[in-house]
Each structure stands twice: as structure tokens, then as C-alpha cells.
Amino acid sequence: MKKNIILLIGFLLFAQISIFAMDCCAKDDGHAGHSSSKHKETKTGGKDIVINRAVEPENIGNIICPVTGDKIDEKTKVAYEYKGKIYDFCCAACIDEFKKDPEKFIKKIEEENQKKEGKMNMKVKDPVCKMEINSEEADATSVYGGKTYYFCSKACKEKFDKDPKKYIKE
Question: pLDDT tens-digit profile of 76-109?
Fold first, then answer.
């Protein structure tokens, strides 16, 4: 009798785990119209993640968060897969914002990459503190009036964003 009860409990646990696993694999995140690969959201902590697939997604390699314009910290970055490409963000909240209008933010990333190709490591001046920095090493950026401004720190960016006209001579 005890043996039968133990076998029954074992069978029920196994069945429950199997159903849970199938349910997890079958869920979709509701993004109609996207590619057949599921969207993946992962906190990388600066480490590469290996995902087994027939076709590996392309890592875009953006170093600036398309939502905030801040430089992405390799230790705390968060990645999100969309249409077979992996995009990096400074935090999970930015992924939520990205999901609202992905194409808008993808355009920003493409513009960043074009600038990176054409203007690698140019000297720029932080408009707030007037410090000269390398554009690639800027901790943050803001776009105002169609022009990109580079900052030595997030604090300078925040001051600029509150009142850009105060720091720009037009």
C-alpha cells in the first residue's frame, strides 16, 4: 500500500512538472507580427549568454541606451531580443519603453551606429561643465535641436535636460 502511494505521488509530481515545462515553452509574449523566434530578455552582467537555436540572433552591440541616451554599463546591462537581433539597455524599465515603439528606438540605434562609423572617438566639450571628453567615452548623451550633446556624467546630462537653452549658444 505504501509503495503504491509513493509511486502515485511520484507520478503526479512528474506529470505536474511536465505540464509546467510545456506551458512555459508554449507561451508567447503577445507581440503579433514578429519573427517566429521568441523575444528574450536577459540580465547579462557583462557575460555572454549562449542560446541554442538554428539561427543565432545578431547582437547589435549598441553602447548607448536608445531610451535614455546614457552609456550602458557592461556590468549591469540588460539585453532584449527583437526580430532576431539583440539590443542592449541600461535597465529593464528601458526594455518596457522599447516594447511600446521598437521601430522608433531601433532608428536611434541605427543613427548611433552611423555616427560611430563616421565620427569615431572625436573630441567634444560637455556643454554643462565645459570638460573636454572623447565622444566614445561620454557617460551620457542628449539630442536637442537635432544635435547630439555629450556629457562627462549623468549629473551634467540631467542639468542640461532640465534647461538646454541655458547651456547652448545658438
Answer: 889 999 888 888 998 989 999 999 988 888 888 8
Three-state SS letters, the chain: CHHHHHHHHHHHHHHHHHHHHHHHHHCCCCCCCCCCCCCCEEECCCCCCCCCCCCCCEECCCCECCCCCEECCCCCCEEEEECCEEEEECCHHHHHHHHHCHHHHHHHHHHHHHHHHHCCCCEEECCCCCCEEEHHHCCEEEEECCEEEEECCHHHHHHHHHCHHHHCCC
Q: Identify the sign of the CA torsion 96, 100, 102, 108.
A: negative
Q: Among residues of the chain, what percentage have pLDDT more than 90?
A: 19
Nearest to 124 by CA among 114, 139, 112: 139
